[in-house]
Structures
1.
Amino acid sequence: MFRGQFKITKREEKGIADVCLFTVMLYVKAWFQAPHAPSASLTDLQLLKDIITYRQNNAAVAEVALKKISGYLWYLSEELVAFAFFDDRVSVDTKRLMVAALHKTGPENPPKRAVLEPALISSKQLEDFVTENTKRFFDNFGIPADFLERDVDTWPTDEAYMTAKATASNCHVVNDIAERGVALMDEFNKLHTNDEQQKQ
């Protein structure tokens, strides 16, 4: 729309088009879902999987995006993945697998954000991030976790679950939005021009 106001090379024009296509095809959906904490874990995992698939469209953009997004996987950490228990998009079967995974031993001091090998992303599911450390989430938020002992099918009518879900839903992932957007655009900006005037 404004390209007539700037002198840009064909390479720069292609770079802008690449950023726009990636943003419209993948990033906008994740961007709008990001503030809703219960959706964060599944949103992050799905975005990673979408980026892996996007390699077929534009491998260079996919690699840069994957590298940047991989540094912000707070909501796939062993503790914060518990938000997914309250995400209506997560299937009952997956939630059952997540509950079962709560018995899996985790490290004493788990990392604050997940670290994933790109080759393994496509095969990862939410339950793969759950360990006994995930229970710390409930302690940290002061949420009773006794609903985990009841069948997942009963959760929508379980008062304890609904109270916990309300608490989780009132959390907003404000910093995450800003960090992701600034970091991703900054990285793309560096790739396409070194001219300070063009960057501005």
2.
Amino acid sequence: MNGSSDSIRLKEAEEWLSNFPRLFDLYQRSQKGNPRNYFNFKKLFPIAYAGAVAYADIETALAKLDRISWERLSKKALSCVTADDPLRRYHQLFSVLNEARGYVYLANEGYEQIEFIEDQSRKSPDLLGHKANSLAILEVKTVNQSDEDLVEESLRGGGAIEVEPKLSVRFKSRILRGIRDAREQLDAFPKATDKRIVFLFVHMESTQRTCGESYADLKSFIDDQNTDGIEVIHQATP
């Protein structure tokens, strides 16, 4: 690589370090030479890459983590940086990073001591939050598009779509499955808690992303799941 190319790459790295420091830190720790590395696949450099803007949302959440929490989450995320699924690509990586959204939620609710639970067995929730006389546990679940929708979206290639204002039975089933799995993990926590929270990060189906009625239907459906001492909240992709 000549001096000019080296200079450009250094400038791009500095821009990523400035704008997306925690994603860049994850990249620096990862297996850079692995051809399945997400950041190489997405061409982390240059910052002008059109998709870079989409990273701002998750970077904002990651920036809220204290140093110890970031160490724990990044350690978990590293194992997913090279996990490339033929259909869903790097969904495992972003499902892990989405756990930062649960941390931010607890912080916004006034929990002052928040930690990722290190025992990440299948029956363990993700987060524990403490504040005056209150203890909360929280499990983050990412609800992704269905396989069918991903295939159909790929075949359309960005073409026109028919908007579906109401959530499909298939998609609601995916949401209920995520809540059920999260509930099992919360119920298995051995200590008494004041709050048990399921945090859903929902990737809307491609036919519903532009329809306000779909988001209203999503909110109503999720609100109906707040039962038996479990609080279910959500964020959805725009």
3.
Amino acid sequence: MDSPRRLRSLPSWLTSQVALQGDRLVSEALAEAGVRKHHFTVLTALAEAGAVSQAELGRRLWLDRSDLHAVLNDLEREGLVARVRDESDRRRNLVQLTPAGTDELVRWDARVEAAQDALLAPLSAVERETLASLLERVVAHHRG
């Protein structure tokens, strides 16, 4: 049975449906590589920002301290991140991406891109760019 027409006309409902499908596709693509989305998110953040404190990383990604700790343990065990002493403040550690982490992120990026292609399959390249631009505007507006 289809969802009620009134719901299908609401942008908030439509974006939540797209988000659910996108989440499923990305999660499945990463699961095939034996990882979860939080693993990908952490490596992506480190690749973009460089070495950061664990607390800053958690704030940036909105990850609970214990969840982040578990993810970092997984990634460190695989040699994808390293915790190193912060030279400017010897009391804290920084988390940094390792060369192996950079290589693995390239592989994970390809999987996530394939998931994006599957999600947006009915759209042309121009429509995809337009959709992304409009969604970025809405997100930016609500971030304040």
